[in-house]
Amino acid sequence: MSEQPLLQLENAGKTFHLKPMFGAAKEVVAMRNISLSVEQGRALAVVGESGSGKSTLGRAVTRLFSLTEGRVLFKGRDISQMKSRSESLAYNRAVQMVFQDPFAALNPAHTIRHHLERPLKLHHKLSGWALAEAVKGVLADVELDPDMALSKYPHELSGGQRQRVNLARALAVGAELVVADEPTSMLDVSIRKSVLGLMKRMKTDRGITFLYITHDIATAHYLAEDTAVMFAGQVVEWGPSERVIANPQHPYTKVLLSAVPDPAQRFVASEDGGRAFAKGVEEVRALARKPAGLPVEVEPGHFVRHRLTQLDAA
Ligand SMILES: Nc1ncnc2c1ncn2[C@@H]1O[C@H](COP(=O)(O)OP(=O)(O)O)[C@@H](O)[C@H]1O
Ligand SMILES: [Mg+2]
């Protein structure tokens, strides 16, 4: 393990300025004052309900837009300063995104062979026998049978197989960091764990680093050594995944652990006397929406901001 984290966010913030055709201009603070880091070969889970700013964080890391505050460092280098074409290309190769919708990054008109050959030709200058072997190699790495998969089109595969192809493609490109934004939430429950297991093996066997974005805090520890809980654009609690789950401090983390939310929904009141719970959630939201205070270390490496003890009993 290297001294320097592979990826670091330093006081990262993003405010969207919306100028609707009618009505007043509006600001959305999607992300505020985020400082996190991941070392090479490890995984950091970013968990939170819908709208908490997780995808904004992932997109900022993949440079889909620039930050309005702070910096993102990759191997110590500020990614907004990567201006030369060669440095930009190298970064775009090293950091790959896997999306919730396994179709999102696949071209329906091309076979799986095409999807995997392209990056291997382009980035690794492979051809002929070496190319064929490399294609088989990345498929083997994601546990797909080449004879089954190569001549298929994306729609001919299952969701889980498509997500495996996306991960194979990240390997073919030469990814060092995979930003996986809800990679299993559109998949059948029965195969989620196998895709998570695959990512875990990519991490341990190949040293791939993961930023694992999920609404499901219960799955975080399976892949990620560390977990950061995001709420209303801020990280309210972070630390070793096992500790955050076993000993949650922030009321919002407790809410996340007490219900597995729908990825597309905020928490809702349930029919059966769930009102008090829903009220508690609203209270938690109102409190957590204020700028968070200084971090408090509750046990080694486990931090919380705004320890809202008055809500702990709720
Ligand atoms: N391109 C954008 N323009 C304006 N607002 C945005 C944009 N992207 C995200 N947001 C807002 O930022 C907040 C966080 O969104 P997002 O990062 O997608 O959350 P999550 O991935 O946790 O569901 C939301 O309020 C969302 O509406
Ligand atoms: Mg999202």
UniProtKB/TrEMBL annotation:
Domain of life of the organism encoding this protein: Bacteria
One Pfam family of this chain: oligo_HPY
Membrane-topology descriptor: Peripheral membrane protein
Keywords assigned: ATP-binding, Nucleotide-binding, Transport
Molecular function GO labels: ATP binding; ATP hydrolysis activity
Main location: membrane
One BP annotation, GO: peptide transport
Compartment(s) where it occurs, according to its Swiss-Prot or TrEMBL record: Cell inner membrane
Domain ABC transporter: 7-257
Transmembrane segment boundaries: none
GO cellular component labels: plasma membrane
Family per similarity comment: Belongs to the ABC transporter superfamily.
Protein's UniProt name: Dipeptide/oligopeptide/nickel ABC transporter ATP-binding protein
UniProt source species: Pelagibacterium lentulum
Lineage per the UniProt record: Bacteria, Pseudomonadati, Pseudomonadota, Alphaproteobacteria, Hyphomicrobiales
